[in-house]
C-alpha cells in the first residue's frame, strides 16, 4: 500500500516567542548541537520554559528549528495511538514556572526533510552530531516515501505531516497563523540529490 501524498501543518505567523529558556534537559550531554544549531539526533523529550510568549494555536514555532510546540487537543485529533507511537511530548512551562495550559513540546520519532527544487538547493552533514542540514525552495515534497507505518511525521523544521488518508477525514482547515498544504512523494527528488543520510559523528 502506498500513500499518495501527505498533508503538512505549519505555523504561518512570526516566531511566537520573544524570549525563552529551556528546562528539563534529559540528556546529560545536552540535546542541543551548537555546531548546526539543531537538536542532536535521537528520540528524547525536550522541555522549555518560555518567558514571554504569543502562541498561536494549534501549532506554533518554537525558538529552535527542529522542535515544535503544539496544542495537546490538536494532537488528539490525529489519534491518541498515533501520538503515543510517533511523538515524544515534553512540557512547555510559562514564565511563572507552571506548565503552559494545553500546550506541549513535540519531538517526532520519524523525522523527514521538506525537499525543494534544484534552484539554490544544498545539503550537508553536521560533523559534530550527524544531523542532516538542508536548504531548498518550495514547492516542498517528501522523498523517499516515508515509512508507511509512521502516521505522524516531524519535518526538519519541527512542523508536522500526516498521510492524506488520515488527514482528509479530519477536514482540518488553514486559518490565521496556521497553514495546511499538500506534500507529494515524487518518483525522483527534484533537487538533484539522492537520499540525505549522514554517518554518525566521529568519536560520538
Ligand atoms: Zn550538529
How would you sum up this structure, described in words?
The chain is mainly beta. The chain has a domain at 15-109. 8% of the residues lie in helices and 36% in strands. It has 3 helices and 15 strands. It has helices at 72-77, 80-86, 164-167; strands at residues 5-11, 17-23, 32-33, 38-39, 47-53, 59-61, 68-71, 87-93, 99-108, 111-112, 122-125, 132-135, 153-155, 160-163, 178-184. A 6-stranded mixed sheet has the order 2-5-8-9-7-6. Strands 10-13-14-1-15 form a 5-stranded mixed sheet. Strand 8 and strand 9 (99-108) form a beta hairpin. The longest helix is centred in the middle third of the chain and has 7 residues, at 80-86. Bound molecules: zinc ion (ZN). Zinc ion is lined by residues 33, 35-36, 38, 126, 128-129, 131. Zinc ion binds next to loops.
Topology (SSEs and partners):
Layout: E1 5-11, E2 17-23, E3 32-33, E4 38-39, E5 47-53, E6 59-61, E7 68-71, H1 72-77, H2 80-86, E8 87-93, E9 99-108, E10 111-112, E11 122-125, E12 132-135, E13 153-155, E14 160-163, H3 164-167, E15 178-184
Parallel strand pairs: 5-8, 10-13
Antiparallel strand pairs: 1-14, 1-15, 2-5, 3-4, 6-7, 7-9, 8-9, 11-12, 13-14
This protein binds zinc ion.
Zinc ion (ZN) binds at residues 33, 35-36, 38, 126, 128-129, 131.
Summary of the model, kept short:
By secondary structure, the chain is mainly beta. 8% of the residues lie in helices and 36% in strands. It has three helices and 15 strands.
Describe this protein with a few key phrases:
36% strand, mainly beta, binds zinc ion, 204 residues, globular, 6-stranded mixed beta sheet, 3 helices
